[in-house]
Amino acid sequence: MNWAALAIGLAGLVVVGLIVYWQLVIAEGTYLGSRIVILLYDWSAHIYERIKQYDAGAEQWFLGLPLTRALTLIPAPLVLDVATGTGRLPRALLRQPVFEGRVIGLDLSRRMLREAVRRTAQFADRLTYVWQDAQRLPFDDDTFDAVTCLEALEFTPNPRAVLVELVRVLRPGGVLLVTNRVGRDAKLMPGRAFPRDVFERLLQELPLEDVKVRRWQMDYDLAWAVKVGEPRGGGVRPLPEILRCPACGGPLRRGTGAYVCTECGRRYPVGDDGVIEMANIGQT
After folding, report:
1. Which of 236, 160, 140 is nearest to 149 (CA)?
2. How does pLDDT run across 215-242, given as a tens digit for each residue?
3. Which of 256, 8, 172, 79 is nearest to 16 (CA)?
4. Domain-wise residue ranges, the chain
């Protein structure tokens, strides 16, 4: 037996295994492209909450309550949760007795959104889900009183570009709430996760003020910031007033079972679960 060849072969298998573990488990496919990331989340949607094991009390105390307080002076605030997953942030916020606004949850995994709809059925009259990419938010500038993105930036192809989009749709005086991956595994995600000082600088380069980055969980920092400008928030607007065509940027009107762009004619169907499906551009 050629022991040297066997040792080399085993070492090669170990290396391949470590690379696969890094790409699919730690990085969740982010370096393999968006399709792989979406596929992994679609596969795990039905067990995602069991994997994460969210504590409802902690979620309301550390997410829902502080965000509600930050929006206290805004009548009927409108909130966008990007990469909403199974509706974690909407649940934490809509369970707050004094929150009287609406929430839009956006995600690129269709199966995660279907799970979110099921888990947030009690809030259906105040909650809308959109199937779309975070890099092309289908909303006009200065639309939301708060924009959140939790535990997701590092799984997007370009976290900096996503941050720019989050701030674009945030109203002056509005609240931005985002996370940044830290801890041991963060070093294995170059270009996706950032050291705290680098992340702070990224936020400070945007039209934001009162930037505060704090350790939140073992693997994440939580950043709060306010968009520069005279506050002018409040008042929930109908969906056709705030939705924009992701293909051309034109306004949408509500048609039969779909939203239709008034400029390019593309149709964005509303799924049987109520999700507005924009990720797959329809035919004119």
Report:
1. 160
2. 887 889 999 999 998 877 666 778 888 9
3. 8
4. 3-49, 54-227, 239-277
Cα gap 133→139, rounded to integer Å = 12
For tokens 């085993």, what's the residue? Answer: 10
Query: pLDDT band at 45, cuts 50/70/90?
Result: confident
Q: For residues 253 and 265, give the distance between their C-alpha atoms in angstroms, rounded to a whole number.
A: 10
Q: Which pair of structure tokens corresponds to residue 27?
A: 């990085």
d(CA 216, CA 77): 25
Options 3.10.450.50, 3.40.50.1970, 3.40.50.1220, 3.40.50.150; CATH for 54-227 is: 3.40.50.150
- Distance of CA 36 to CAs 23, 66, 101, Å? 10, 34, 35
DSSP tag of 183: S
Cβ atoms within 10 Å, residue 45: 20
Q: How high is the pLDDT of residue 284?
A: 34
Q: Which of 244, 284, 232 is nearest to 74 (CA)?
A: 232
Are 145 and 78 within 8 A, CB to CB?
Answer: yes
Bridge partner list, 13: none
Tokens encoding 219 = 């693997």
Give the whole-angstrom CA distance, residue 261 versus residue 250: 6
The residue type of 240 is: P
Helices (H), 136-256: 159-168, 196-204, 239-242
Would you say 131 and 276 are in contact if contact means Cβ atoms under 8 Å apart? yes
| Residues in Cβ contact with 247 at an 8 Å cutoff, skipping those fewer than 6 apart | 261, 264, 266, 281
Cα separation, 283 vs 65, whole angstroms: 43
